Structure prediction request, 138 residues.
Amino acid sequence: MVAGSIAKQVLQVIGVDLYAYVSSVGEVDLDVSYDELDLSKIDSNIVRCPDETTASQMISLIDSVRKEGDTVGGIISGLALNVPVGLGAPVFDKLHADLAKAMMSINAVKGFEYGGGFAMSKQRGSQVNDSFIDTLMV
Prediction:
């Protein structure tokens, strides 16, 4: 916890901002894009959801499921803003790979995605792949 706090402070010095918030609990989803959220409201409720209406629905669901003696899953969304281009090694120690490894090392984590992630599996490659441009650079 201390190491993470120190790392966050170091990243803030170079302008990188890190956020994590709950975007889904059971069937209750936060249907707002991250760029439309007031990220300062993340800590305003017990579920750490930056949208008050959605947070209330999440809390109600959790209370209901708890009374039934059960549990419910959820999704935590992480956001890193102003990350310098090229951070991490270009091949084996990519930032994406290191983050995925760290998250998947947590026993309760069953999935991890970047950007469009799992939803991209339902689209055509022409809609989701980066374009390759055949040009000769001189």
Remarks:
- Helices lie at 2-13, 52-67, 95-104, 125-128.
- The mean pLDDT is 86.
- DSSP finds four helices and three strands in the chain.
